[in-house]
Amino acid sequence: MSVKPIRLMGAHEIRIRLGGVSRQRAYQITSRQDFPVPIADLVQGKVWLTEDVEAWMKAHRRDASDDDEN
């Protein structure tokens, strides 16, 4: 029987995954109502399921062509 490992992300990993945004910007993003709910709120901070965060990023990623038009 194979057990699928649980992959988690904290705020630091989310900052890196978002391209190195500031702590303040990461807080703003993770506080949005449409951002996934953290799986736990630890003393060290909140943690999210990686698959939930990745799905949110995929749905909300800015298209590179949008940058060309501005």
Verbal overview:
It contains four helices and three strands; from the N terminus they run βααββαα. It has a three-stranded antiparallel sheet with strand order 1-3-2. Helix content is 46%, strand content 16%. Residues 63-70 have low confidence and may be disordered. A hairpin with a 2-residue loop joins β2 (40-42) and β3.
Brief write-up:
It comes from Actinoplanes flavus. The chain has helices spanning 11-17, 23-30, 50-60, 64-69, and strands at 8-10, 40-42, 45-49.
List keywords for this structure.
70 residues; alpha+beta; 3-stranded antiparallel sheet; 4 helices; globular; disordered C terminus; DNA binding
Which strand order do you get reading across the main beta sheet?
A: 1-3-2
Helix fraction, binned, reads 40-55%
Rg over CA atoms: 14 Å
Structural class estimated from helices and strands? alpha+beta
**Could you state the order of secondary-structure elements as H and E?**
EHHEEHH
The parts where pLDDT drops under 50 for at least 5 residues are 63-70
**What's the total helix number?**
4
Protein name: DNA-binding protein
Organism: Actinoplanes flavus
Keywords: DNA-binding
GO molecular function, one term: DNA binding
Topology:
Blueprint: E1 8-10, H1 11-17, H2 23-30, E2 40-42, E3 45-49, H3 50-60, H4 64-69
Antiparallel strand pairs: 1-3, 2-3
